[in-house]
Design a protein that fits this description.
16% strand; 6 strands; alpha/beta; 6-stranded mixed beta sheet; Nucleotidyltransferase, domain 5
Amino acid sequence: MLNNINLSRVLFLDIETVPETYNYKDLNSNKKKIWEEKYGGEKEYTKSSMLAEFGKIICISVGFFDLKTPKKRSFRVKSFIGEEIEILENFKILCNSHFHLKNSLLCAHNGREFDFPFIARRMIINKVKLPKILDMHEKKPWEIPHLDTLYLWKFGDYKSSISLRLLSEVLGLSSKKIKLQGKEIANKFYLEKQIDKIVEYCENDVLILSQVILRFRNDPLLQDEEVVFLKN
């Protein structure tokens, strides 16, 4: 499975998002009115981090295989943090410089319905030109080539759904135990200012993602010494 994919042309990624403003009362009046009409009031506002129109990206973690040296692979992990426009610009530079060829692919868990469109929408909102790899506006859903481990695991059973954590568990993949859940991200970012913890959480998901793809291919899993964390 997936053995026709050139792993060195795949950019594995995960994003962390938060509400545009931590407090509902700080949302501008027009957006607040739209939110109340469509989604409810303040009680539902925590869900805004899942919507590109009401949320923002605080971290994009990526990983890619370096297979240049025969019989000596490495998996390089890097995160983009800071102001959202800076995150998006730096991610775009990476895509345009290293993942611009026709056979380049993105890979995420539920990327088709969350990560990929969220990044694209936030780029447009922030007036950042889309990299070619994310410019999919003319493609039908079945024409999008990017890898999505959620959809790969469905095997055509579109009623099913599975989290990345559960998928890694059933595949017997070991991973670093991080005491952080997605619902805690906003508090960690806005109140506790623990961006390092968020980065660790995001990078760990990228590592799990890469191991899932290796497991699908029946390739040897990554060992600790093969993983290189690049400075942010």
